[in-house]
Write the structure tokens for this entry.
Amino acid sequence: MIQLVLFDIDGTLLHSGGAGVKAFARAFSMEFGLNDGTERMKFAGRTDVSLVREFFSHHNVAASPENFERFFRAYIFCLQQTIRESQGGACAGVIDFYESLKTLSNPPLIGLLTGNIEQGARIKLEHYKLWDKFIFGAFADDNEDRNQIAVVAKRRGGELYGRPLRGEEVLVIGDTPMDIRCARAIEAKALAVATGSYKVEELLAHKPDWAVEDLSKMPVLEALGRK
């Protein structure tokens, strides 16, 4: 039975109208004077840290702690602006699915598993009034590798639950093959949703436990193994 549900953010919980991508581009321009390259990068399912490292590599910028700090300071400033300029909101089915989880007689813990840095995740989720729905999370601050972020999320969930959780007690919900992969890295169940840039057929090729158009198509009790 599932005791911990972990949600990805971008394309799974919400659409931000490209606020994050725009903030990346503005931060690179503002802080480093680099005005091209982000349009060729694939953001879906990636961690913020790995994206910055890739951009630095393309432009021969030293991937030093100081340069990462410079970038993310500028990124947070830009994200606070771009999120206000962008259209977006919760993905289809998200609010009802979440409320169905919370109203169960024995609800699972609900957390975040995301490639966003924590400050960026908070800005996005607070803007759409979703941040307070999650009691904990694991972020790109914890590790550059998405699979290792999943390990951190599972461990923190176990600490809150009161004992280490087995993989089959964890459900990861995400919209990319990378979300499916990181679920498998911790032997968790994987629920893939086609609310991001991947279609159901593309997600099915990576063998999740379920792949649906959006969360309105997934019975909560079935996802939790309680049906």
Notes: The beta strands are 4-7, 14-15, 89-90, 109-113, 137-138, 170-174, 189-193, 210-212.
